[in-house]
Specification:
Layout (H helix, E strand, L loop, with lengths): L13 H17 L3 H21 L6 H26 L4 H23 L6 H23 L12 H21 L5 E2 L2 E2 H34 L1
Antiparallel strand pairs: 1-2
Helix pairs in contact: 1-3, 2-3, 2-4, 3-4, 3-6, 4-5, 5-7, 6-7
């Protein structure tokens, strides 16, 4: 069976890859399947969602929820590294790399929506736009050019926005007389609206680059 090479890979800074190199070798040595790691990313996302959801009655969980969001990202990186290092990369693996990501986005933003610290509608709109952003990014690959990972609100930055929202919220609860509202919206309202606005910019950039790549491809033919 010929060696499979993924058609698109998300650009990841070397400093982040270094955090997973030892674990990658360990997983390959033990025969740990990359699909299992993809499923673990959903587990991490579910833990983040539970932390956000229960933070309404246990505010200390706002400190830990972002950690599970980043663990989700780390598993997302690790599964691809293990797949390539073990020679188990496949079309099936590409599907199982992306589908858990979309499940994870919905879980996390649903947890945020029902945290009690925000208007739930903003959380669900953030989830919808996160899905649309990923969907638009895959258009390029679907029509025969490159997959797009560009834009200001890619998956890692969505998690950073939630991290900022969670920690600013708990800081306000501790040191701002419990006030978490600014211009009538809560901190997490603003965080999710930032995600929505960033996703709009990201979708626009990705569509422009995909269309430019298609025009270049057509001109070359």
């Amino acid at each position: 069976m010929p060696h499979y090479e993924p058609t698109s890979r998300r650009p990841i800074a070397n400093i982040f890859r270094l955090t997973a190199q030892g674990v990658t070798r360990f997983c390959v040595r033990l025969g740990f399947h990359p699909d299992t790691i993809s499923y673990l990313s959903i587990v991490a996302a579910a833990l983040a969602a539970v932390c956000f959801w229960r933070s309404g009655t246990h505010r200390i969980l706002l400190l830990f929820a972002p950690g599970f969001c980043y663990l989700r990202l780390w598993f997302n990186m690790l599964d691809g590294m293990v797949a390539l290092a073990s020679g188990k990369a496949s079309w099936r693996g590409e599907i199982l790399n992306d589908l858990p990501d979309r499940v994870s986005d919905v879980l996390i933003f649903a947890g945020v929506a029902h945290s009690g610290w925000m208007n739930p509608l903003f959380g669900y709109w953030a989830a919808i736009f996160a899905l649309l952003t990923a969907y638009v990014g895959m258009f390029g690959q679907a029509v025969g050019v490159q997959r797009e990972f560009s834009g200001v609100m890619s998956k890692p930055w969505r998690m950073v926005a939630l991290h900022a929202g969670a920690w600013i919220t708990i800081a306000c609860l501790w040191w701002n007389d419990g006030s978490i509202r600014f211009l009538r919206l809560t901190v997490l309202d603003w965080a999710c609206l930032t995600v929505v606005a960033g996703c709009l910019q990201t979708m626009t950039i990705r569509l422009k680059r995909i269309m430019a790549a298609l025009r270049s491809k057509a001109a070359a033919n």
